[in-house]
Amino acid sequence: MNRLADTADRDVGPLPYTASVLAPRTTVIVNPKSQGGRLGKRWPEIAETLTRAFPYDVFHTSGVGDATKLAREALGKGAERIVAIGGDGTINEVTNGFFDNGKPIAPDACLGIIPFGTGGDFRRTLELPAEPADAAKVLVANHKKKIDIGKLELTGHDGKPMLRMFINIASFGVSGHLDRMINEGGKKLGRIGYFTTGVRATLSYKNQRVQLRFDDDAAGRVEVTAYNVAVANGKFFGGGMKIAPDAEIDDGKFDVTVVGDLGVMQLMTGFARQVYSGAHLKTKGISVRRAKIVEAEPINPNDKVEFDVDGEHLGRLPARFEVMPQALWLVVPGAAGA
Fold first, then answer.
1. Crossing angle for the helix pair 190-204 and 174-185, nearest 10 degrees?
2. Which residues contact 217 (CB under 8 A, 6 or more apart)?
3. 3-59 pLDDT, tens per residue?
4. Cβ neighbours for 30, distance < 8 A, ≥ 6 positions apart
């Protein structure tokens, strides 16, 4: 894949304030297709806001995997901060650019986020402002903390093993089924679109038998019939569902939320109402377990149990999840960390 931004489409923000001299060397990676192309239309306005805030280089993506490649290239050339502008999928791709085969390539560099996606789930965990101008103020303050990152070894759509880092939540079951349906239908209706498509996904999904093992404990092997299993670093997925309300992004463990063999009526009248507030954990058939390592596979090897990884439909079981504690610097609201 060729580099996507040359001198013709590469903007360098000026240095409007003396204080900007102290700003980290920043590369901004923009997904103009976010929110059905709305980001591309608003980019001139957002670019002007950023230009007033700090100096930066900017590159635009045009396809899957571009953000990872661009982030990795920028870090290799000395960027100290990479800012992802887009949705959860863009944030995931940029996060993967910080790692090579699961290892950090620039341990002192940090990730910044200006959210502009359909779901906005990781933004909710961070309590990051949704409006780009307000999110830019967080970048100017540049408060940082080290957070955990998930390392996921899964089976790709082609049946081959693949490695993917995730910053928020990797889940399998109806979430992967739903994610495929949303991607096929387009991401233009926001939370309403997630909800209505979620109803259709629930009605068409058959709960599947899976085997789980935690922290390499053979004696702790569990078999469940699951509607969905979420291995959570952050709290939210699916366009605002608070699937793991007690999860923390810097505690060194995943919160594994298993939504068991609930019927359609239970899901539609109970779970669907409760999950947005996090009250679903009180429901019979839903459990949470904390672990550093999770292994999962279908009981029936012919079952195709699909994945959602930070909002992207990437593959299927079998898979292995491992938390990487304190693996990435992240710019966050308020004074935190170094």
1. 130
2. none
3. 333 323 434 343 343 344 478 999 999 999 999 899 999 999 999 999 999 999 999
4. 39, 43, 58, 59, 60, 61, 85, 86
Q: What was the pLDDT predicted at 334?
A: 86
pLDDT in tens, 183-223: 776 555 556 666 787 788 888 899 999 999 999 998 879 99
The SS3 call for residue 106 is coil
Q: Tokens 């779901």 appear where?
A: 119
Strands 307-309 and 286-291: unpaired
Model-level pTM? Answer: 0.89
d(CA 173, CA 206): 9
At residue 177, the 3 state secondary structure works out as helix
Ranges of H-type helices in the chain:
34-53, 66-76, 88-97, 121-126, 132-141, 174-185, 190-204, 264-266, 272-274
Q: How far apart are CA 120 and CA 125, in angstroms?
A: 9
* Pair of tokens at residue 122: 């990781």
CA distances from 192 to 198, 216, 272 (A): 10, 40, 13
